[in-house]
Amino acid sequence: MFDPVNGELTMPGDLRGVRERVDIVLEGFLADKARGSDRARLPADFVDGLHSFVFSGGRRVRPLLCVLGWYAAGGSERLPMAVIRVAAALEMLHAAVLIHTDVIERRITRRGHPTIPCALAARYTDKPDRDRFGRQAALLLGDLALAWSDELVGTAHLSARQRVAAGSMITAMRVEVIYGQYLDLLATGDPADDLDRALEIIRYRTVAYTCERPLQLGARLAGADPLVQEGLAAYAAALGEAVHLNEDLHNVFGDRATDGSRVDVLRDGKHTALVAAALGRARGGAAVELRALLGNPGLDSRGATICRDIMIEVGARAEIERMVARRREQALDALERIGIPAPAKQFLSSLAQRLTGTDR
Q1: pTM confidence score
Q2: Distances (CA, A) of 124 to 114, 120, 137, 357
Q3: Could you give phi then psi for residue 128, rounded to 5 degrees?
Q4: Are 334 and 235 in contact (CB under 8 A)?
Q5: In what order do the strands lie in the sheet with 78-80?
Q6: What is the pLDDT of residue 50?
Q7: Rounded distance, CA 112 to CA 350, Å?
Q8: Separation CA 26–CA 92 (nearest Å)
């Protein structure tokens, strides 16, 4: 519950409670920005569009890990509003990254809704080149989300020590995800059997940005000692790889992937671990056919089905499933060795199971 006297939130008994509290901060922040835009007579597109995007779905993984990092490192059970605000800033940062990613990859939908570039293009049908306008405007909106992420941290009433910790950690997150996106861009369209390269992209683009840094950030806000930080980093590194590998499987085989998105993933020729494993295992005619189909701009649903069948037949899907399970166990083993409160271990263990699909 929110305490209006001291501005603190009681540590919830479940993960959903953290999400609700982060969403309260995001809702209030964006409502304030909307009022400011109205007073300045600025276009409502940006705030409205960003609000719709932020609240269109998403699991709030980074805020959750930030809060759990605080709690695991000995932070008070009465969670300060400052920590919730920093956690909300991570979600705003994530929105910026996703918007920029959708521009780079020219994605049509995300979370079952039109992407920001497509939504802005659809709003301004009178533009001579509305698709180009949509991409350009989306880049600006992504930049604005970055600026507002900074503002959320800057207005969180952190101590001097906490400000230094937050600044260095969030900067590292930004740099690492940008490098990861660039490595991904370099490899896209030229998939290979180099599994190590695929894992390197994962570590930069997903592992540090999604799991390691948010968890470390929360722990540092609480003043975690080096041993706890080291243990949490080991847990998060293994979990982050498991999460991304599991997402690779779902993007190609899972129920969450529509037929169109399954085709897009393979048509783009992404250098994923699943693709690398398939190319490394395929032989003879299967290898020739797979290389001809992956990254082919003309790939259709039939071709995508052939790709999936080959991935299953050569054992690539099973290999990635084993990698997910192995990394999940590594994360849980690392968690057991950390000297943190039992409830924090329970939360982090539950989160690992949820994010890697074992509770589906």
Answers
A1: 0.90
A2: 14, 7, 11, 40
A3: -60, -40
A4: yes
A5: 2-3, 8-10, 78-80
A6: 95
A7: 26
A8: 8
How buried is 219 (Cβ within 10 angstroms: 0-12 exposed, 13-18 middle, 19+ buried)? Answer: buried
Angle separating helix axes 15-39 and 61-72, nearest 10 degrees: 120
In this structure, how many other beta carbons lie within 10 angstroms of the beta carbon of residue 81? 17
CA 41 to chain centre: 34
Tell me the angle at which helices 273-281 and 301-313 cross, rounded to the nearest 10 degrees: 70
Dihedral, 354, 207, 318, 197 alpha carbons, nearest 10? 170
Residue 6: per-residue pLDDT = 36
> For residue 79, what are the β-bridge partners?
9
CA distance 235 to 238: 6
pLDDT digits (tens, 9 = 90+) for 130-182: 999 999 999 999 999 999 999 999 999 999 999 999 999 999 999 999 999 99
Strand partners, 113: 110
Give 261's DSSP letter.
Answer: H
C-alpha distances in angstroms, 258 versus 226, 241, 253, 266, 308? 44, 23, 9, 13, 14
The residues that bridge with 110 in the sheet, in sequence order, are: 113
What is the distance between the alpha carbons of residues 14 and 347, in angstroms, rounded to a whole number? 8
Cα 173 to Cα 128: distance, rounded to the nearest angstrom: 38
Four-residue CA torsion sign, 50, 55, 60, 64? positive
